[in-house]
Write a structure and sequence with these properties.
Rossmann fold, alpha/beta, 16 helices, 374 residues, six-stranded parallel beta sheet, globular
C-alpha cells in the first residue's frame, strides 16, 4: 500500500509531529509513505529529512504561525493555481490512499483529482475543534468534503464538533485519536543529573509547559499563576517559540519573576523527553486544541498534568487534573506543588492512561480504515 499525506505545515507543532510518527511506523509495517507540503516549513522538512521520509514541496509559501480563518482563505486563493501541479504529483506517485490534513488541502486535493478517471481512496483528517461557518463557506466546504470516504477527527470531541457543523455528513465522520511513541518518554535517567545538564534548579519544584508561544496557548496565565503560588522554590519553565515571546518576556521582567519563570525557546523533539523527566508536573493553559499531543507526552513521562476543561478529551482518561476556571487551575497546581506523594500517585496513574494512546494503536486504526476493515 502507498499512502500520500498532504498538508500546509506551520513550523513544527502537534500535527506535524503526528505525521512524522505515522510515517515512521507505517514504514515499519511495510506501507510506503510520502508527504506533500502545500507550504514550506524548514523545521518540519528538517525532521522529514532526518527520518528519511519522502516529501515534495508544492510552493515556496511560508504560512504564518498563528493563522486565522481569513488567513486560511487567503492562503487558498494564493495557492489555488497549484491544482495542476498537485494533480501531476499524484498521477506520478499513483498512491492507493490520499490523506488531506486540514484546510486548504481539504479543497485542493479533490479539485486536483476532478478530471482523473481512476481515483485513490480519499480521507480527510481534521486536527482542531470545528467552529461554526457562514452559510456560503459551510456549503462550499461541504461540497468538497463529500468527495472523501471518511472525515476523521483526531479525538471524539473533534468528531462531535464536525458533526455539529456538518450534520448531513455525520455518517462519514469518525475519529481516530492521536498517538505518540510512549516508550520514547518512559526514560530511566537520574533526575538530578538531567537537571544539572539542562541547567534546571537543583532543588525545588519545576512545572513544565510546552507549546508554541501564541495567544491561544495562553502562556500569559502562567505568569499570573507564578504570582499566585508565591514559593521561592517553585519554578515554571516554558518550552517553545513564537510570536508572543517578546511580550511574555517583558511581562516576566515587569513582574520581577525572571528567577522563577523561564522561556526556554525551541527544543528539538528528541530532547523533549529529558525536559519532561527533569520536571515535577506539567501545566498546559491552552484554551483551544483538537488533541494536545504535548499533554499526552507529559502523561507518558509520568507527570501529573493540569489543563483547562475546554481542551479536555475523554481519551485522556480520568486521572488528569481538569480545571473549570483559572482559580481552579491555580488550586490544582498548588496542591501538586505542595504534595510530593500526590504528584507521584497522579503521575503513575496518567502514565498508565497514556499507554492506551500509543502510536502503534493509532497506526493500526488508520490502516484498518484504509483497508476497509472498519
Amino acid at each position: 500500500m502507498k499512502v500520500v499525506s498532504i498538508l500546509s505545515p506551520i513550523k513544527f507543532g502537534g500535527g506535524e509531529k503526528l505525521l512524522i510518527e505515522q510515517g515512521r511506523w507505517f514504514r515499519k509495517i511495510g506501507v510506503e509513505y510520502m508527504i506533500v507540503n502545500l507550504t514550506r516549513s524548514e523545521e518540519f522538512e528538517r525532521y522529514l529529512d532526518k527520518e528519511d521520509i519522502k516529501y515534495v514541496n508544492v510552493t515556496d509559501v511560508v504560512f504564518k504561525q498563528t493563522p486565522t480563518k481569513k488567513d486560511y482563505l487567503t492562503l487558498l486563493l494564493r495557492i489555488m493555481g497549484t491544482v495542476p501541479k498537485i494533480r501531476k504529483i499524484l498521477l506520478k506517485e499513483q498512491p492507493d490512499v490520499i490523506v488531506s490534513n486540514g484546510f486548504p488541502a481539504s479543497v485542493l486535493v479533490p479539485a486536483s483529482l476532478a478530471m482523473c478517471r481512476s481515483k485513490p481512496k480519499l480521507f480527510y483528517v481534521h486536527h482542531s475543534l470545528k467552529t461554526k461557518e457562514r452559510w456560503i463557506v459551510k456549503n462550499i466546504y461541504q461540497f468538497f468534503l463529500r468527495r472523501y470516504e471518511k472525515i476523521i477527527g483526531v479525538s471524539s470531541s473533534t468528531a462531535d464538533s464536525l458533526k455539529k457543523v456538518f450534520p448531513l455528513l455525520a455518517d462519514k465522520i469518525c475519529y481516530i485519536t492521536n498517538g505518540i511513541d510512549t516508550e520514547v518518554f518512559n526514560i530511566n535517567y537520574d533526575k538530578t543529573s538531567i537537571r544539572l545538564k539542562l541547567d534546571f534548579p537543583k532543588e525545588g519544584v519545576v512545572a513544565l509547559s510546552v507549546g508554541r508561544l501564541t495567544k491561544l496557548k495562553n502562556h500569559a496565565f502562567l505568569i499570573r499563576l507564578a504570582k499566585e503560588i508565591d514559593r521561592r522554590d517553585f519554578y515554571i519553565y516554558i518550552v517553545g517559540d513564537g510570536d508572543e515571546h517578546q511580550t511574555l518576556q517583558e511581562e516576566i521582567s515587569r513582574e520581577k519573576l525572571e528567577g522563577r519563570v523561564k522561556l526556554i525557546g525551541f527544543v528539538p523533539q528528541e530532547l523533549l523527553p529529558l525536559y519532561y523527566k527533569a520536571s515535577d508536573l506539567f501545566i498546559y493553559p491552552s484554551l483551544h486544541e483538537g488533541f494536545g499531543l504535548v499533554v499526552l507526552e507529559a502523561m507518558a513521562s509520568g507527570l501529573p498534568t493540569v489543563i483547562f476543561d475546554s481542551i479536555y478529551v475523554k481519551e485522556f482518561g480520568d486521572n488528569i487534573c481538569i480545571a473549570k476556571s483559572e482559580q481552579e487551575f491555580v488550586e490544582y497546581t498548588r496542591i501538586l506543588v505542595n504534595d510530593e506523594l500526590r504528584r507521584r500517585q497522579v503521575g503513575e496513574a496518567v502514565m498508565k492512561d497514556a499507554k492506551e494512546l500509543d502510536i502503534r494503536k493509532t497506526v493500526e486504526r488508520y490502516l484498518k480504515l484504509f483497508e476497509g476493515r472498519n
